[in-house]
Amino acid sequence: MMTEEQKIAARKESQRKYAEKNKAKIQEYRQQYMKDNAKELSDKRHEYYIAHKKESLDYRHKYYAEHKDAVYSVTKEWCKNNRVRRSNAAKEYRIRNPEKESAHLIVANAIKSGKLIKGPCYICGSTKRINCHHPDYNLPLDVIFLCPIHHSRLHKILKLIGG
Q1: Could you tell me which of 151, 116, 156 has the C-alpha nearest to residue 134?
Q2: CA distance 107 to 101
Q3: Phi/psi zone of residue 15: left (φ > 0), alpha (ψ -120 to 50 degrees), beta?
Q4: What is the pTM of this model?
């Protein structure tokens, strides 16, 4: 007579053998299922993310901090392999946001001509990779100089307060 643990082990072994034998069939089934239920699966992922937003963000920040080099190389590789996709997304963004595009161009030209000089980050004083933040796109040369970290944080805060 088999014990409960032996029955479970035998069942797992049987499932493993079936999966090994029918790998292509299972993969095809999974792909078809995902295609047929894309909206429902997307909604479930979104619900889970909303319910566990803080844990998800904490995990991503911790993972990125621990694997910064690997994440960078994967991102760089993805960007290299998806140039057309990125280019199309940038074009669509410019079409959707003409006032932002105009403000960005005015600032870029002002920096090139020397009419506007990039300053250090308004918050930490860093001078590396400075971004120009536009509080109001109708005033294109009225910018705040921020490092990427503080620029990103500012946008997160603005998103939270609805600004």
Answers
A1: 151
A2: 10
A3: alpha
A4: 0.55
Q: Using H for helix, E for strand and C for coil, what is the string for the chain? A: CCCHHHHHHHHHHHHHHHHHHCHHHHHHHHHHHHHHCHHHHHHHHHHHHHHCHHHHHHHHHHHHHHCHHHHHHHHHHHHHHCHHHHHHHHHHHHHHCHHHHHHHHHHHHHHHHCCCCCCCCCCCCCCCCCEEECCCCCCCCCCEEECHHHHHHHHHHHHHHCC
- Report the half-sphere exposure of 131 (CA within 13 A, side-chain side): 15
Rounded Cα distance between 26 and 124, Å, is 53
Q: What is the dihedral of CA 64, 69, 73, 78, to 10 degrees?
A: 10
* Tens of each residue's pLDDT in the chain, 163 residues: 789 999 999 999 999 999 999 999 999 999 999 999 999 999 999 999 999 999 998 999 999 999 999 999 999 999 999 999 999 999 999 999 999 999 999 999 999 999 999 999 999 999 999 999 999 999 999 999 999 999 999 999 998 888 6
CB 132 within 8 A of CB 107: yes
